């Protein structure tokens, strides 16, 4: 009978029956006079079936949530109407969280508050016209702190600064339980997404995360709409320039060709290199594209060579005393002239970089191309921060129309870089949150699946690298995010350190590479410690702690700017490493000597032990071993050849003595 009832449970699962129906087989068996043992087995089967039912419902709910997020991403990919996309996001937030209402507020920079942008399920006109001051109410607090907040009973919650107009609108709408999450672009909050219920209801962490994901989509939609509008504006300017040029001269045709081709590049998803190729084909000469730090990212880096400004730029009368000029430094004392050609050649590359930097600042201030020697410089900034600079080397005369082409190319390049940065920041946030969870909450469900969705296979070997960058937080975080994307890993900014999870099984070499490359990017030393290798989700936190200890040890040892794992730290690695790999330490410190003894049947290890045991005395060592002093000297010379000439330096000697002791203890 139990087997038949078990089949009944499976049939109930198959037709997605309600939880109450699972009591039927138990009641039927009890009324049929089944024994206590049979009833107990049947009760156990019922509980197992209910667990399976709950698991299936959770998975179905998760699939629905993911499907909604994918649909939202699809809407963004085919973005045509921002209002329609935002309304869809708010509607999906209400459906997925099962709330009575959902709504979105956006920040008004002119008035310094937030205003109601989209609502779903709202019935009150007063509520739909509501404005929230920063810090006022739950929404104002979310906008001010950039942190999600929820309340099961808004009016009974004293955490929020209640204001009469806000409370009246919420009361008129009949809302009780409210959850709000920030809409963020980088560190800037542009609005708040809400889900609300008209009865008391607590919100779970999963619901907070889900609403946060929808908020991230909404923020991307708003930012993409802004970028698309800027692109449309740029394209309109290009088209207007095309019409003017086509009406009057051959220069118009060249400008039209350049504008059309760059427009096509934007629409086809072309890159910065494609824009540079178009400019050089239309205008001739050589072009290089510089990033916000003045480093080449596309084009011909030869443009930056010392000859680009011509001889006159490096050998001309110096400015008078007190003159503030790009050439106001480095005059020859007592001559009143710039250094000669030979001396200028030695400093040429640095001087070219300084001149281009000055020209780029002038270009951004004027909004026009600036000529410096044989170079044309066009630079674009965003929010008073440089974004990109185009440097064209062309010895001939360049018309005003051609200069406009270079300026438009700089604008298109800036838009492409902005879009690339937006995409990278969104992906970096996803990867950073995942790495944070692997470190702080390794038992969280779904971590491996989340990793696979961003191209990271945690079933393979990975190394955790902790980098102490000593300043330049944003640049270090951006560099780490780029490396994580490039190498199919993860990166996160945690306090004053950058953490990376990268594929590999050699912590030491990987830490050295990270330290060297990030130091070069920042322009000052960055120290990297590594732990691992690890597989799966459970070992990442321990590897992170080991990497932190390795970084701390490097700083304490005065080795800032280097990278190492526990193995590269010698005996210090035995103290900071989780693995306590004594064998690896012995190989590093004493391996060549041990191998030599094994191959030749010599007694170099014994000689080393006696030598250190007698305080480095040759005569006492010879007495201890009952051999001639010359034999001791010959053996020590052989040891020097095997271990290196610095084997008696204090730090090396300490490691070798520790290795000898461990070797003796290990038998």
Structure description:
The structure is a single chain. This protein has 667 residues and is an alpha+beta fold. Helix 20 crosses helix 21 (618-625). It is flat and about 105 Å long. Residues 311-341 and 573-577 have low confidence and may be disordered. It has helices at 2-14, 24-31, 36-77, 82-97, 125-128, 137-145, 164-173, 205-248, 250-268, 272-283, 341-346, 348-366, 400-440, 447-453, 473-486, 507-522, 540-556, 571-576, 582-600, 604-613, 618-625, 629-643, 650-665, and strands at residues 101-108, 113-120, 131-133, 149-151, 177-185, 188-197, 286-290, 296-299, 370-372, 375-382, 385-393, 462-468, 490-494, 497-503, 527-534, 563-564. The strands form 3 sheets. A 6-stranded antiparallel β-sheet has the order 3-2-1-6-5-4. Strands 8-7-11-10-9 form a 5-stranded antiparallel β-sheet.
What is shown here, in short?
With 667 residues, this protein is α+β, with helices and mostly antiparallel strands.
Write the layout of secondary structure elements.
Layout: H1 2-14, H2 24-31, H3 36-77, H4 82-97, E1 101-108, E2 113-120, H5 125-128, E3 131-133, H6 137-145, E4 149-151, H7 164-173, E5 177-185, E6 188-197, H8 205-248, H9 250-268, H10 272-283, E7 286-290, E8 296-299, H11 341-346, H12 348-366, E9 370-372, E10 375-382, E11 385-393, H13 400-440, H14 447-453, E12 462-468, H15 473-486, E13 490-494, E14 497-503, H16 507-522, E15 527-534, H17 540-556, E16 563-564, H18 571-576, H19 582-600, H20 604-613, H21 618-625, H22 629-643, H23 650-665
Parallel strand pairs: 15-16
Antiparallel strand pairs: 1-2, 1-6, 2-3, 4-5, 5-6, 7-8, 7-11, 9-10, 10-11, 12-14, 12-15, 13-14
Helix pairs in contact: 1-3, 2-3, 3-4, 3-8, 4-8, 8-9, 8-13, 9-10, 9-13, 10-13, 13-15, 19-23, 20-21, 21-22
């Amino acid at each position: 009978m139990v087997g038949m009832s078990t089949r009944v449970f499976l049939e109930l699962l198959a037709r997605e029956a309600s939880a109450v129906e699972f009591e039927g087989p138990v009641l039927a068996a009890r009324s049929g006079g089944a024994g206590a043992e049979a009833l107990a087995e049947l009760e156990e089967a019922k509980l197992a079936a209910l667990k399976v039912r709950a698991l299936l419902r959770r998975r179905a709910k998760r699939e629905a949530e993911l499907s909604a997020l994918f649909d939202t991403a699809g809407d963004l990919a085919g973005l045509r109407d921002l209002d329609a996309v935002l309304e869809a996001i708010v509607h999906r937030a209400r459906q997925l969280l099962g709330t009575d209402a959902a709504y979105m507020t956006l920040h008004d920079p002119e008035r310094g508050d937030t205003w109601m942008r989209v609502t779903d399920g709202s019935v009150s006109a007063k509520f739909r016209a509501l404005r929230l001051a920063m810090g006022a109410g739950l929404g104002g607090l979310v906008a001010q702190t950039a942190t999600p907040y929820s309340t099961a009973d808004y009016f009974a919650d004293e955490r929020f600064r209640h204001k009469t107009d806000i409370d009246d609108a919420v009361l008129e709408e009949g809302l009780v339980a409210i959850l709000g999450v920030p809409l963020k672009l980088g560190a800037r909050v542009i609005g708040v997404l809400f889900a609300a219920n008209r009865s008391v209801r607590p919100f779970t962490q999963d619901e907070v995360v889900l609403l946060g994901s929808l908020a991230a989509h909404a923020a991307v939609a708003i930012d993409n709409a802004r970028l698309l509008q800027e692109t449309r504006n740029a394209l309109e300017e290009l088209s207007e320039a095309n019409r003017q040029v086509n009406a009057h001269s051959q220069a118009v045709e060249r400008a039209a060709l350049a504008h059309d081709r760059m427009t096509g590049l934007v629409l086809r998803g072309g890159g910065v290199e494609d824009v540079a190729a178009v400019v050089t084909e239309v205008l001739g000469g050589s072009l290089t594209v510089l990033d916000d730090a003045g480093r080449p990212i596309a084009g011909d880096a030869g443009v930056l060579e010392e000859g680009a400004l011509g001889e006159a730029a490096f050998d001309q009368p110096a400015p008078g005393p007190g003159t503030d000029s790009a050439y106001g430094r480095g005059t020859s004392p007592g001559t009143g002239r710039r250094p000669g050609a030979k001396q200028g050649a030695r400093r040429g590359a640095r001087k070219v970089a300084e001149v281009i930097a000055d020209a780029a600042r002038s270009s951004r201030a004027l909004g026009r191309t600036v000529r410096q020697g044989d170079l044309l410089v066009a630079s674009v900034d965003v929010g008073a921060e440089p974004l990109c600079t185009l440097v064209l080397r062309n010895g001939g005369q360049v018309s005003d129309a051609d200069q406009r082409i270079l300026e438009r190319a700089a604008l298109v390049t800036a838009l492409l870089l902005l879009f690339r940065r937006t995409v990278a920041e969104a992906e970096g946030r996803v990867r950073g949150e995942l790495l944070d969870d692997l470190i702080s909450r390794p038992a969280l469900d779904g971590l491996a699946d989340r990793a696979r969705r961003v191209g990271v296979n945690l079933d393979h070997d990975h190394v955790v690298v902790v980098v102490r960058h000593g300043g330049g937080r944003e640049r270090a975080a951006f560099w780490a995010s780029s490396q994580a994307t490039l190498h199919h890993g993860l990166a996160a900014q945690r306090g004053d350190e950058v953490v990376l999870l990268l594929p590999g099984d050699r912590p030491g070499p990987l830490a050295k590479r990270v330290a060297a490359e990030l130091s070069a990017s920042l322009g000052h030393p960055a120290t990297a410690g590594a732990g691992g290798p690890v597989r799966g989700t459970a070992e990442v936190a321990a590897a992170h702690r080991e990497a932190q200890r390795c970084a701390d040890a490097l700083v304490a040892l005065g080795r800032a700017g280097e990278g190492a794992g526990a193995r590269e730290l010698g005996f210090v690695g035995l103290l900071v490493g989780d693995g306590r790999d004594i064998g690896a330490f012995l190989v590093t410190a004493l391996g060549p000597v041990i191998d030599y003894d094994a191959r030749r049947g010599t007694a170099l290890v014994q000689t080393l032990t006696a030598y250190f045991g007698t305080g480095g005395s040759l005569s006492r060592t010879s007495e201890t071993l009952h051999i001639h002093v010359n034999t001791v000297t010959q053996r020590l010379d052989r040891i020097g050849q095997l271990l290196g000439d610095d084997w008696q330096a204090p730090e090396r000697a300490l490691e070798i003595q520790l290795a000898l002791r461990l070797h003796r203890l290990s038998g």
